Description:
Elements: E1 3-5, E2 8-17, H1 22-37, E3 42-50, E4 62-63, H2 64-72, H3 74-90, E5 100-101, H4 105-114, H5 119-135, H6 143-153, H7 158-163, H8 169-180, E6 188-191, E7 195-198, H9 203-215
Parallel strand pairs: 2-3
Antiparallel strand pairs: 1-2, 2-6, 4-5, 6-7
Amino acid sequence: MTHSIGEKKVIKIDVSSDTVCPWCFVGKQNLQKAMDSAKDQFDFEVRWHPFFLNPNAPKEGVRKTDFYKQKFGPAQYEGIISRMTKVFQSLGFQYDTSGLTGNTMDSHRLITYASTQGYDKQNALVEELFLNYFCQGKYIGDRQVLLDAAQKVGIGGAAELLEDPTKGIEEVQEEFEKYSSGINGVPHYVINGKYKLSGGQPPEVILKAFEAAANDASF
């Protein structure tokens, strides 16, 4: 819902995302640009929810290059990597295809847990994990990578969470059922519980959704 604090309205954004989805990284950067350009008009609350592009991915991880070549075929793989490299460069980042990809449950356990310490911290964690995976060749299935990210953004209790492989699974599943079970791809945004966007939309499209939500008389 949209609430007013002084003269500003608060816009709530629910984002379904997977930590190994490059378009989710792109979408997050564009979302941030849209929020930055509208910060004088609105206050924002961003909440991240789990989605699994490959729920059966191995926990031990596989080489990114091997996985994507097998998934898309060598010729299509080269085209996809070339395109993503250009997209990342346009945002000021270097797309890194080194390292491993694999199961994202542990990263989603940590992200869901982070929300209990504030959505700002959760948002910072999502950003750090995206940078780790897409720009630094780190594997977000590696416990130490997750712990380092949690420590960097000031999230306490991460070690206790990750030491128990069952802890937080129920919460992730509840979040998935509530926010992500009815969608087919990510990133997926729901603004004020009503206005929906999918894919790595440019900032101007996201801005229009903010304005529509703010002007909606039902909120």
